Here is the input.
Amino acid sequence: MHIPSPRGAFRVWQRDLTIFRKFWKPALFPNFIEPFFYLAALGLGLGAFIGDINGQDYILFIAPGLLASNAMFAASFEATFNTFVKLKIDRVYDAIVSTPVNAEDIVAGEYLWAGTRSVLYGTSFLIVLTALGLISSWWALLLPPFIFLMGLMFSVMGMLFTSLIQSIDFYAYYFTLIVTPMFLFSGIFFPIEDFPAPVPQLAWFTPLYHAVNVCRELATGPSPAVLIDVLWVVVFTFGLALVPVQIMRKRLIS
Here is the structure.
């Protein structure tokens, strides 16, 4: 089994960062403003009819969940469309593997970069939530490193799908059948526990469900039960991380 080298992965991450610096303003704005629209439309609009959930104002309930979904979308787009362009259209990876940087380093570097983008988008949104008074716990200081972990998790998922497809059109299936259901049924907008079986049980096996739980706990003050969600995220991320590495190696070397 081939293991990525830290130096090579850093060089791939560094390349992505250098390019991102040239267009970070137009790239950051859409990912930042979309969850803000959800927050305003649902938190203030729908929230006026719902009242509170679990003793919280509705806007306070959905704000941490939208933070988690922001990190998911940032990492997912980076590990899918952006990665596919570099793999199949611009052939960037073909050029990189002709250097001392190998295929394993490329995948690990893209993981790190997707995590970095999640932190950039998520922290920006977190600052706004804090300014609006929607974050009530000092434990929220742990949100940026957890957002990075979320970015790694969703980049692993996106990279796995990318490593298996031959056409960019297949991403319609990924976002329609995987990302969108997670967005709707991971407890962002309503407690999943109130649904009849097997919806809560199925939700437990989705990554975003646990990410939302952790973000909500850190935003309001965690309970010991949140450690189970953190452990789930860690095991899922690192248990799956080497699979795309091996598949992408075969694609790039062949």
Summary: The chain is about 75% helix and 0% strand.
